[in-house]
Design a protein that fits this description.
Strand content: 5-15%
Largest sheet: 2 strands, antiparallel
Number of helices: 5
Distance between the termini: 60 Å
């Protein structure tokens, strides 16, 4: 039988320079370009403020991890959650009276039909009830 090498540590990013990964290097390079642009076109106080903020944001996105994942995944999931909240509210629109009438109607339909199944199903009532619940009421079972 042939043996294969199974890759391990697949979630560890490759290091480019020392301890810096490709993503971290790109973030620092982008921050450097922004700082150079502000050095050319802004005064010294604005340049220092923008440089500190810029490298702070780049460092946060480069090295900070939330729950073991890079922080940009946290922000992407946060924005996705805010933009489209998944709020599922169960509303019972049918009343108990309607359900009882529906069950009586099903009993009458079943009594009118000739029994095409000439065999008895063996098993517990619980398995039949679970099948009714699992199918969302489409399977009616033996209503007695």
């Amino acid at each position: 039988m042939r043996q294969f090498v199974v890759p391990q540590f697949i979630q560890v990013e490759n290091k480019v320079i020392g301890f810096i990964t490709v993503r971290q290097f790109a973030l620092l390079l982008g921050a450097l370009f922004i700082s150079i642009a502000f050095y050319k076109f802004a005064d010294v106080t604005l340049f220092i403020f923008i440089t500190v903020v810029d490298f702070g944001i780049a460092g946060t996105f480069g090295w900070l991890k939330v729950n073991g994942r890079p922080v940009h995944y946290f922000f992407i999931n946060f924005i996705k959650n805010v933009m489209s909240p998944n709020r599922r509210v169960w509303g019972k629109d049918t009343s108990d009276l309607f359900l009882k009438e529906r069950m009586n109607q099903k009993k009458e339909e079943k009594d009118d039909k000739p029994d095409s199944n000439n065999f008895n199903l063996k098993g517990s009532r619980l398995s039949e009830l679970s099948l009714i619940v699992d199918t969302g009421g489409k399977y009616q079972g033996d209503i007695k």
